[in-house]
Amino acid sequence: GAVVSQHPSWVICKSGTSVKIECRSLDFQATTMFWYRQFPKQSLMLMATSNEGSKATYEQGVEKDKFLINHASLTLSTLTVTSAHPEDSSFYICSAPQSEQYFGPGTRLTVT
Amino acid sequence: GIQVEQSPPDLILQEGANSTLRCNFSDSVNNLQWFHQNPWGQLINLFYIPSGTKQNGRLSATTVATERYSLLYISSSQTTDSGVYFCAGNSGGYQKVTFGTGTKLQVIP
Asked: For residue range A64-91, what is the model confidence (pLDDT) as tens digits?
């Protein structure tokens, strides 16, 4: 099956700083990738659709200026959490579709 | 968007027991998938099953698209089956996926 990687797998940052998370499709090209967020004991919620060569599409309620998405190439999408606050602490996971969705291993962000 | 409900929300099994997890969706769903989320958070693809029945070892899944539900069967459960099981799918021509509410399974020795 297709492989999607994420980096870093976990990160701790101070409040007010920015954090970048990378999502890569390792053995296929992805013009579209998706970013999800999961709070403890909850399901995954779609945050945004990352589109190669164009702007990302954000779900209702997701601040586009806070969660910056860049789809720089056909194998790489990045999510930058800007001016992070403790309430941004969560598990972030990306996916890329190939008929079915393939998910990265996730990034656990803790903001202190 | 579509709503995806899973049942039961929580399930405790004795090792060796069988179980059935259900996924109901509010509208027609394409590309239905089942996932197992392990304790480290990683989503493991179990089945891609837009319709019909598939089996993989002790696991099998059935999707009845016309009735908007899917079932995941776990037979002879093992402690390593513990975790959260999600179904997910998309509707219409959209690729973005909606996840179900999840079933938390605990298999005890």
From this structure: 999 999 998 999 999 999 999 999 999 9
How much is the pLDDT for B96? 80
Question: Would you call A101 and B33 a contact, using CB atoms and an 8 Å cutoff?
Answer: yes
User: Distance (Å) from the C-alpha of residue B52 to the closest C-alpha of chain A?
Assistant: 16
The phi-psi region of residue B57 (left if phi > 0; otherwise alpha if psi is between -120 and 50; otherwise beta) is left
pLDDT in tens, chain B (109 residues): 789 999 999 999 999 999 999 999 998 888 899 999 988 898 999 999 999 999 999 999 999 999 999 999 999 999 999 999 999 998 776 678 899 999 999 999 9
- Alpha-carbon torsion, ordered A67, A72, A73, A75, to 10 deg: -30
**Among partner residues B31, B99, B100, which is closest to A100 by beta-carbon distance?**
B31
A15 secondary structure, DSSP code: T
Residue of chain B nearest A43, judged by CA positions:
B101
Nearest CA to A20 out of A84, A102, A101, A112 is that of: A84
Å from B48 to nearest chain A CA? 6
* Count of A-B CB contacts under 8 Å: 48
The length of chain A is 112
Chain A hits for B50, Cβ within 8 Å: none
